[in-house]
């Protein structure tokens, strides 16, 4: 199917909206908030059908990797480094996951990776441009 490999690629952080309000809402400690602000995170996605490997490379060499299969429960890690179990769903070409304290979607739109996290009415949007 045409949309099957839509997510595969490497994406570099381009911009975000409502970062501060959102990370305070989900309770990130202030040093993590500073680290993450305008952070040139590179997100590397390998999609094989419904199987995903989703890796975030942070400046300074730290990486986090979440592996999941659409429709199956998987152990994941949050922005703040907490482990939890979630089932990622595919809805209208978007990946949708319920994190412990926020709702997260990811989609490819206009060649960019657009991620939206919502917590108690605060909407955090992060856009990354494709670099590979």
From TrEMBL:
GO terms for cellular component: cytoplasm. Signal peptide: none annotated. Residues 9-26 form the Cytosolic fatty-acid binding proteins domain. It is found in: Cytoplasm. GO terms for molecular function: lipid binding. Gene3D superfamilies: 2.40.128.20. Keywords: Cytoplasm, Lipid-binding, Transport. Its main location: cytoplasm. PANTHER family: FATTY ACID BINDING PROTEIN. Belongs to the calycin superfamily. Fatty-acid binding protein (FABP) family. This is FABP6 protein. It comes from Serilophus lunatus (silver-breasted broadbill). The lineage of its organism: Eukaryota, Metazoa, Chordata, Craniata, Vertebrata.
